[in-house]
Give the backbone structure.
Amino acid sequence: MRLNLLSEFEPILLANIHREHSHTLRVYEEQGGYRSLKRVLADQPREAFRDLIKGSALRGRGGAGFPCGLKWTFLPENHPGPVYFCLNADESEPGTFNNRILMEEDPHQVLEGLILSCYATKASTAYIYLRYEYPLAYKRLQSAIDELYAAGYLGDAVCGSEFSLNIYLHRGAAAYICGEETGLIESLEGRRAWPRIKPPFPAVEGAFRKPTVVNNVETAACVKQIADRGVDWFRSLGTPPDPNNPRDPGSFGPKLYCLSGHVEKPGCYEAPLGITVSELINDFGGGVWKGRKAKAAVPGGISMGLLTADELDCKLDFSGPGKYGCLGLGTAAVVVLDETVSIVDFLHNTCRFFAHESCGQCTPCREGTSWSLKMLDRIRAGQGRLLDLDLLLEIGDFIGIMPGTTICGLADGAAWPIKNAIRKFRDEFEQYIKRTNPTGYMETSPPLALELHSIH
Amino acid sequence: MTNQPAKTETPAGQRVLSEAIVAEIKAYFPRYPTRQAVTLPALHVVNAHLRHVPLQAVVEIAELLELAPAQIQDTLSFYGFFKQDAPHGETRAWVCRSVSCALRGGEEILEYMCQKAGIEPGQTTDDGRLTLEFGECLGACEFAPCMLAGDTLHKNLTEESAGKFLQSPTG
């Protein structure tokens, strides 16, 4: 029987976070921590463990949902090495904080998953690329790593085996683009975080031109849980593959959902993949705040677009949000907008974010994000024209990997809120423009420039 | 800002990186297969000590990492993080303006704090105690609106708690 009823579900990834001193090795080991690591190192060849993860159909939790075990098999066989492992802890997608909670409250769960992942991929060096804004996670991870070296879980001969591993923390410097896996690698190497054209994919040529795996923090935690509980447990949770879509590997396992914005109880909640936005808001978040109604919700970080109040039965698995015109599940970070929110203000906020965070490498993204912000600035200054909405949609449809004009997906993420907000709330935009610019909303001549918008 | 940091403004002999700073940077060398990868760690070390990374420091980091100063400067300037012209305040605080915080009044808090402190985002108070910045998503959305001051996360900011912080900023 599938464990899909929410009432039957006990948190797994968050099981330990409320324990006192949950971040210490002592408490982690008391809960059975590192037993799986010792068992796997003693009994299971790397290939067998890699195949176990592949068989679980674990999909990456960082945003793209790429099957984790499959990514590992892209590493070249019999490469002389070294192979590098990068743990992507540059969590920066607005609305997202699940990795922060794992690293602060249960760093050893993440590290056990990371060590197991390195074992499976023959990586002998791992870098945890941690965003600068997480000072507590930095302290907790560093002291956890120190504990591991002292206890023989890291360094030469991990747990007395032939496997050696060093883990280093590497701090970012407040740039969203470093969460893109090749931007992360460039930043790690000491250069500006300009994403690379793929192929070659990092598995073939990544950090320091060597085979490299980049995985998300929550993905590593899932690897540890699969090692503990097995594939059957993992596949008993979530949404099975769509029989009508041969390319859908399904959405299995537990997921950490971040809930913020206009709800009574914002927080990070664990549930099987596939709960609906409404369930998250009402069963976990105590409903929309102040007794108000929801007007819209972001399904998985602002890059994923926007759902209307009528679309909140959307399932939060890897194929759910796409059925409502959104980009995907992303980081599964739901942000709720109540009925008082102006969608114009919301879109201005997302456009400002992406204009600030575009790395500037690809012209369509650099110019598209900053022009969309300038247009939203002008609309909010009472100088909007109806024509602007078509221009914004033109930008939205033109920038990104999907239309093929940029190297990385940042521009797709910038485009989706534009496309969803204007297509789903066009009336509101038109009324706003007519109300605030009653004499000029039909203008089509070039508008006068506003004062230059400083994005830094 | 110049792109030619090779022209040192500090007279020869007046190096800005102390022996302790240099040792701290060198401790990162064994972690990476290239020296260039030590760029960000080195910038963070210098910034932690000097609260900015002046051009002379860029030159000295480049010497340590066996790179051209322009390579360090190129990386440094990509991140809006490292100030070069003057040190930031004793406390540097980022007030989040991204969506989850904005929905709960984050932008108004930032404006209130700037007005109270008499500075714009990115500026430092005259007494040098505080630099206020806007932040993009600090990843603490369950505590919106929030602020990171130094290493301290301030949760569920109100005008009252923000005003209190301004009276004695620490972090």
